[in-house]
Design brief:
The protein is mostly helical and 155 residues long. It contains three helices and four strands. It has a domain of 64 residues: 2-Layer Sandwich (Beta-Lactamase). It has a two-stranded antiparallel ribbon. Strands 3-4 form a two-stranded antiparallel sheet. Strand 1 and strand 2 form a beta hairpin. Helix 1 runs antiparallel to helix 2.
């Protein structure tokens, strides 16, 4: 350190401070991104729980003899697919056999077996959805590429 000039001695702590600030900024940005993703997942879990509670209510009505199973199924599907969240979020219903029960934005998919369908990145979307729903946990999160309502480019 004795061989350094005064200018160099003053620059070393300054460079170390800049490096430390850069590291803190990057770590904070990563933490903020993770916190946003966790919040998004919690919001999606809430939406899914609400849809499941609608279905459970109709199941109770069937058990009580107030509705037939077919009437309850039709009414539950109508209520679930009518749900919206955020600016473009919607709920679809996919069976454990990868058959599309109800898709509110693309009703032409209703009743179709979708296990072979691939998203824009090649992921087996509906197979993965059915696998997550059929897992021991009964839930899960996927990342997939699909056009938002009113758009043509997948995101």
């Amino acid at each position: 350190m004795n061989r350094l000039t005064l200018k160099q001695k003053l620059r070393v702590p300054l460079l170390l401070c800049w490096a430390a600030l850069l590291i803190v900024t990057v770590v904070n940005a990563l933490d903020a991104g993770n916190a946003q993703m966790d919040a998004r997942r919690a919001d999606l879990a809430d939406v899914t729980d609400m849809a499941a509670s609608i279905v459970a209510d109709y199941a109770k009505q069937v058990d009580a003899g107030k509705l037939t199973i077919d009437a309850a199924r039709q009414q539950a599907i109508a209520r679930v697919v009518a749900q919206r969240y955020g600016t473009s979020g919607y709920v679809t219903i996919v069976g454990s056999d990868s058959v599309m029960v109800a898709h509110p934005i693309s009703p032409q998919l209703n009743g179709k077996e979708m296990s072979g369908f691939r998203d824009a990145k090649g992921n087996a979307l509906y197979h993965d959805i059915a696998a997550a729903g059929s897992s021991a946990a009964g839930s899960g999160y996927l990342t997939y590429w699909w056009p938002k309502p009113g758009e043509t480019k997948p995101s």
